[in-house]
Amino acid sequence: GVYTYYCTLHQLSLYITLVCTRTANMFTLNTMQTIKCVVVGDGAVGKTCLLISYTTNKFPSEYVPTVFDNYAVTVMIGGEPYTLGLFDTAGQEDYDRLRPLSYPQTDVFLVCFSVVSPSSFENVKEKWVPEITHHCQKTPFLLVGTQIDLRDDAGTIEKLAKNKQKPISFEQGEKLAKELKAVKYVECSALTQKGLKNVFDEAILAALEPPEPVKRRRCVML
């Protein structure tokens, strides 16, 4: 079962092998158990780059689509293969009614904000966590700070300073994660890949961790 690996996952470093495959139907591999991970957050915070960088090991230098093509990633956990389904979503208001259609059966959410966009940080509390908890009340989520490579970028700091703003600190991210009852706060750069693998390792742990004696909290929309 899913939970027999929980202790092992916490005691040993997570062994993951990525085999990235574009596929029309991500869940045709019936022989594998599946973990569905949905990524949400404001537009332009780097959600798509996060997924492309993780699954292809390359940062998209040119065109970045509004919505990432879904990927099926094979993940080895405790010697058994799982299918990690990664779902991108569009953050713009135009998609507010369509976006929740991708939420059913979600095992874990990644709620993203850019550490150099205070407004995207505020929207985590104002929009994104309320939205996912409304549709999937008991599904675990991680708070993810993106674009950390820009935290020390002189031009970015100067631009923020003109609006009397500054980058979001790691401590601020941790504080908000605790306040909103996120499983954890993690941050990364899709460009340098710093912290990138850890984001998805932690997402897998959150999806497999038994929250209660009953069963894993998979989103079911009524």
UniProtKB/TrEMBL annotation:
Cellular-component GO terms for this entry: adherens junction; cytoplasm; plasma membrane
MF terms in GO: GTP binding; GTPase activity
Membrane topology: Lipid-anchor
Superkingdom as given in the UniProt entry: Eukaryota
Keyword Cell membrane found: yes
Membrane is among the record's keywords: yes
Location of the protein in the cell: Cell junction, Adherens junction; Cell membrane
Alphabetical UniProt keywords: Cell junction, Cell membrane, GTP-binding, Lipoprotein, Membrane, Methylation, Nucleotide-binding, Prenylation
GO BP term, example: small GTPase-mediated signal transduction
Entry-linked Pfam families: Ras
Family label: Belongs to the small GTPase superfamily. Rho family. CDC42 subfamily.
Database matches in PANTHER family: RHO FAMILY GTPASE
Protein name: Cdc42 homolog
